[in-house]
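On clarity, I found the account of how folds are encoded harder to follow than it need be. Since the whole study asks how a given chain folds, the encoding of that fold should be made plain. For the editor and my fellow referees, an illustration may be useful. An entry of this sort, consisting of the sequence and the corresponding backbone structure tokens, reads as follows:

:::
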Amino acid sequence: MLEESIQPKPDSLEWRNFIRGIASWRPRKGLLALVATLALASILTVGYFQTQTQVTLVVDGRPEFLRTHQTSVEALLKETGLEVRSKDIVSPGLEASLADREMISVQRARPATVQVDDRTIETQTHSQTLGELLQELGIVLQPRDRVIIEGQEVSLTASLPEHNSPSRLVSSRSGNRDWHGQEGSSLHVVIQRAVPIHLDNSGHLVTIYTTKATVGEALRDEGINLYLGDQVDPSLGSSISADMQVSIQRSKPATIQVDGRFIKTRTLGETVSEALAQEGVTLLGKDYTVPDVDTPIVSEAAIRVARVKEETIIEQEPISFETAWQPDPNLELDHQRLDQEGEDGVTKRRIYVVYEDSQEVERALEAEWVDQEPTNKVIAYGTKVVQRELETPEGDFTYWRKVRALATSYTAATSGKSPDHPLYGITRLGWEMRGGIVAVDPQVINLETEMYVPGYGIGMAGDTGGKVRGRHVDLGYEEGDLKLWYEWVDVYLLSPPPPAAQIRWVLPSWPRER
């Protein structure tokens, strides 16, 4: 910046006057005249700048380095276009003469507007805090007065906000210097005077001072909590005036339990009935309250409203039908026929019920009757044994029953007994375990029944097992010859059939083939 200030600027007043002087001079004809003109111009330029005074101008803490032919501080400031007002501080003074390399300081006063007591004060100040500014203006704050600066409430000791100070010197197009930002930012201060209001807070009398506009704002600013049930006179939206009278009638806190919910409220009502009416709670029919509706309201009252409902209902209960199995000698074994669909019957009861708050508290049976008798389901099952021929790789056989069953396999070692167990390798019938012995469920296939299993061959039902139930056969193998089975097969029970009393005519349906 220093180098820029020392060099002549093309658009400065000095440079323009210098060029104007040269331009008015007309050299004579010829090369000698031209050289003489240039020499003269150089001499004049050097002489002009060598006769300038170098000064440092500091405005609000910001320095500018200048050269000037002015001889006083006042003339220099006028040359720069910097207006000096009455409260600005200039050092040295305006009448002081300029000396080479001298420093000139200008501390500008800040413009301020103060609104107080229905008047507006326009001033300029060097104050740094609010207290200094008010003391300078002779303004005294009263308790609870509020001061607003730039829209924010501040305390008496608050520092004034910083203002925009001037930026720098520049040259205008006309060649005159101008000072940008020379006005700075103006300070706006509003002082709100507090007025007294007299408050009757449920018999407690107190005077408070406030700057608020309405009763509600004044009470809130004073930290006085209000509840929905409280009554304020005049209303919360009423405008504040000095020495106005404000009364608060306090409501009492209460809790009302009604219709499955809890209402926390405050009431001015004197009795339970009035408190309920305030909340719009109506008693119907045999509804009642605890305590009674005429009970006086006390602080923290707990009121319960019991809703009573009476009704007569008809209940019905199904009478399950039974399934009757009937043998049919003309129907082939393992065939079934539905002879009659089953249908549940219905028993009905008329009951008187009383509810309190949706909970049943009383029930009385008035009548009971069978409204519809059940109809049993009838299924016919075949008892006709038909023997058929079966051709197999092992030969032709005659069988009397074909059973669809899950086939698995086992040996003595996989039967669940250790080799040192006394019954290791011994079947249910006491036979020594060997290939061809099949474990069965005796309730499905009688022990000692001979059978044919495709892929296994002839087997004899000679063993049982804890996991062999229903339509399940476990095919026995010798040690070392085990073939693992887990598949559904047709098991053919070979003739002759057992006596009718030993035949299970209806086989179980489990396990189910998937």
